[in-house]
Amino acid sequence: MEDQRVKARLEEGFAAMGVCCDGAALGKLLRFHALLMEWNARIDLTAVLDPVEMADRHYLDSAAPLAKGLIPQGARVVDVGTGAGFPGVPLAILRPDLHVTLLDALRKRVDFLQAVIDELGLSATAVHMRAEDAGRSPGFREAYDLAVSRAVAATPVLLELMLPLLKVGGSAIAWKGPGVQEELAQGKRAAHLLGGEIGGVLEAPVPGRDWQHVLLVCGKKQKTARQYPRRAGTPGKNPLG
Length: 241
Description:
alpha/beta; seven-stranded mixed β-sheet; 10 helices; 7 strands; about 20% strand; globular
């Protein structure tokens, strides 16, 4: 019964958003949902337990950039602070042309994500690493076309974690709430220091919900200076801007 509720909500929601979700993708999303529920009984992955609310908050919300046409074909994507795989796993399922790196600092989450990747056959890699360390590592620094994050952090903090991972010409997309306007001035200054430029804030509603979700989009205009990102923990304690 639970699967049927999630399935119906996903079909309805993706149709309203104009996001393509064929039968194969829908089946993988439902299997991902089942794995999330199984693992959540053992480790803390999500506090949202109602299946329909999970469909809205996790799967439909993760697809917001697809509804806006923000993700280019074949892009290399890094999901910064992915947690239980949002938005990266739904994006990898809905867009198998992408290669998605799921970056998280907690080992047990990465173990869960690796199990998901293996079972669903996703074009994705789960990496146990802090974003600050990844941003200073040759294998990750300025290696991606797109950085995404639903992590709960102030805009200047997120930009310092995301922009060093991007190639020049790439974009960062951060999921934000209605308070983003209060962060924009400091965010613009931080973006400038990191070689980026905030391009805009796009409304990203979930059909049938009154959540005021937006996507903050920041383009990478030039290489990030070597001193960024600063060492682990510093961006959160002392935000740029």
